[in-house]
Amino acid sequence: MEKNMKRSKEKKSKKKIWLWVVASLLTLFLVLIGSAYFTIQKTMNKINTPLLQTTEATQQEVKTVIRKDPFSVLLLGVDERKEDSGRSDTMIVVTVNPEKQTMKMLSIPRDTRTEIVGHDTVDKINHAYAFGGVPMAVDTVEHFLNIPIDYYVFINMEGFLQIIDTLGGVTIDNDMDLTYNEYHYPKGEVTLDGNEALIFSRIRYEDPRGDFGRQIRQRQIIEAVMKKASTPSTLLKATDMLDVLGDNVRMNFSVKDLLQLQSLYKKMNADIEQLSFEAGEGERIRGIWYYIPDDKELQRIQLTLNNHLKK
After folding, report:
1. Which of 78, 57, 66, 215 is nearest to 143 (CA)?
2. CA pair distance 41, 256, nearest whole angstrom
3. What b/e string do you get for 142-153 counting C-beta neighbours within 10 Å, with b at 16 or more?
4. Helix 211-229 with 194-202: angle, nearest 10 deg
5. Cβ proximity of 169 and 193 under 8 Å
6. Number of H helices and number of E strands within the chain?
7. Residue 196: strand, helix, or coil
8. pLDDT in tens, 181-238
């Protein structure tokens, strides 16, 4: 009788211990989730900047819901300086078709001569950001490519290296042996930290392809960051990532959009189709060097992007 009572007490005691352990773990998990949610909300309040069209038409907020409809994103990499607002030295348009599970990525040469919408001038396309910030850059790219731009992501390029360092570096397949000062990038697979990636993305004159070679490297790094950021190990660095993003990124994606994007990206084909301008020529006009796109190539790219944005 006493033995049975003793065993019963031991069982109850063990149950209490396990219940306490489980309850403690659940409490800790909920605290972490709560903290993460608070951090996410705090960061998104800082990052999320709705985009208003600046054309003469009635101002409308750009759509911010991703479902099955195709959509486009303008990536702006800006070198901000203390003395001015900086230039959007990196301008990349990404189109996504969820139904076809495909993505296309186009680099726009920063010296491309085009109409700057809202400024009544014809100038280098990367000057649009300097003249009118993100809204003018978006309007100008829309006009140049004849497609709607639904979303934008603004990245301070100096801060971009912090994002790569937080991810633990990125690995890319370098297609050309390159050296810039003390930096050497051998041909083949190379892993880069933030500073190495930033220098790698800026090399221009050491590459015989000039700005086009740089565009290839920029796309490689962005694609590598996207792939690395979608891995489970990134969750362990979520808080650090959010802090860096809050200081260096602005976008009009909501938290809901980003969650859908992450889910969508996992279903996408691994390869992103790369588009580029190749047939245009450089020309000096009143002493300033411009890239003049080939009309037929520009029309072909416009058609390709428009078709990709259709259901």
Report:
1. 57
2. 11
3. bbbbebebbbbb
4. 150
5. yes
6. 8, 14
7. helix
8. 889 999 999 999 888 888 888 787 788 887 778 778 877 887 788 777 766 666 566 6
